[in-house]
Write a structure and sequence with these properties.
- The complex is a heterodimer of chains A (95) and B (257).
- Chain A has one domain (4-94): Arc Repressor Mutant, subunit A (Orthogonal Bundle).
- Chain A has helices spanning 4-12, 19-30, 36-48, 68-94; strands at residues 52-54, 64-66.
- Chain A is mostly helical and 95 residues long.
- Chain A contains four helices and two strands.
- In chain A, helix 1 packs across helix 2 (19-30).
- Chain B has 257 residues and is of the alpha+beta class.
- The chains are: A mainly alpha (95), B alpha+beta (257).
- Chains A and B meet through helix 2 and helix 3 of A and helix 2 and helix 3 of B.
Chain lengths: 95, 257
């Protein structure tokens, strides 16, 4: 649950956010505080993959938006994660 | 702490800073400064510096190239052999205990000066024709100096002294070392009769050297390989810098290519 790609996409899934807002949001829903270097490393990768894109802003703080490809990728990741969670829970019950 | 984060930002690649520096600094201004955050920024800088760098084949090729480029010329360098003799320092008055180091040192110095004279070295050069080609071109003083540089006399453990002479011909190396050892031992015996506290005995006689001591071809090849690796890594970074340009795309969006 500490994969910055997953956390960042999940954070942007409910709306545009700038870096600091993403850090705060991720800490709130995942309990993980991403460092600034880690966050911007992930932003660089995701933007290169075209899973997120910057949106116009008057502020120095640059907001980002998840793209359609980004949503599809996030959905895939969450499905896989869901499978892992389900399998894990099922096996725990039978153990 | 904030200054440290600011410093770490400067370590990011120029192209990356061109695209993200302003907004990244804005984020850092909102972030509570800490060692952890500073380390994270530094870690990010390293990650971005390494990003897009392909060390793969280029580095391997240059490393192998460096290995052989250094190895092949080493076969054109004449081998050098070093025959060794080990001498033992023997107290002449064992009941008086160990001979003080300072006494050994000064006595050895005196013997060396008397044995390794220019005259004696010149005699050995001529007797064994040690440097036949150079003898035609260079003054004898230079050859004596060269020979002196190839003689090693040093402590080799408790009460032991190592004497060796390095030469491209292993037979000459052995014979000259034998003569020098004999001269030194004979002189020490002669001095003993005049009251010296110790003399020298031969612990290990001089043997014919089998393996050359120079050049160390493996070491030279590995040096070449290291140079190749360094060139390969620098080249990989240069290529990355040339490819990783930042352009402004259509619609006001940024694209990192």
């Amino acid at each position: 649950m500490s994969d910055p790609t997953l956390l960042l996409l999940a954070s942007l899934a409910d709306g545009d956010k700038h870096g600091y807002a993403m850090m705060e949001d991720i800490e709130r829903f995942a309990g993980v505080r991403l460092g600034p270097g880690t966050l911007y490393g992930a932003i660089t990768r995701l933007e290169q993959q075209r899973w997120i894109k910057p949106v116009a802003s008057e502020d120095r703080r640059q907001p980002y938006r998840i793209t359609a490809e980004g949503r599809a990728h996030l959905a895939g990741l969450l499905e896989k994660l869901n499978e892992v969670v389900k399998t894990g829970l099922r096996r725990l019950k039978h153990a | 702490m904030r200054w440290l984060m600011g410093l770490a930002v400067r370590l990011y690649p120029k192209a990356w800073r061109g695209r993200y520096e302003d907004e990244f600094k804005a984020l850092l201004e909102e972030t509570k400064p800490s060692w952890r955050a500073s380390f994270d920024v530094l870690k990010g800088a390293i990650e971005m510096q390494l990003r897009g760098v392909r060390f793969g084949k280029g580095v391997i090729f240059l490393a192998l190239g460096g290995f052989f480029v250094a190895l092949i010329p080493s076969y054109f360098i004449a081998d050098q052999y070093a025959a060794k003799g080990i001498l033992k320092i023997q107290p002449t008055r064992p009941r008086e205990g160990l001979v003080p180091k300072s006494v050994v040192s000064s006595q050895m110095q005196e013997w060396v000066q008397r044995v390794f004279t220019n005259q004696e070295l010149r005699r050995l050069i001529e007797k064994y024709r040690l440097y036949p080609e150079k003898q035609l071109k260079e003054p004898m003083e230079d050859l004596v100096e060269e020979m002196r540089e190839n003689i090693v006399l040093q402590p080799a453990g408790k009460d032991l002294v190592l004497l060796q002479f390095r030469h491209r011909d292993r037979f000459s190396s052995k014979r000259v070392t034998e003569e020098l050892v004999d001269d030194l031992v004979d002189l020490s015996h002669a001095t003993t009769s005049k009251g010296s506290l110790f003399d020298l005995g031969i612990l290990k006689p001089v043997r014919m050297p089998d393996i050359p001591v120079y050049p160390n071809r493996l070491f030279m090849a590995l040096e070449g390989m290291c140079v190749g690796v360094v060139i390969g890594v620098l080249r990989a970074f240069r290529r990355r810098a040339a490819v990783g340009s930042v352009v402004r795309g259509s619609g006001g969006e940024w694209r990192v290519d």
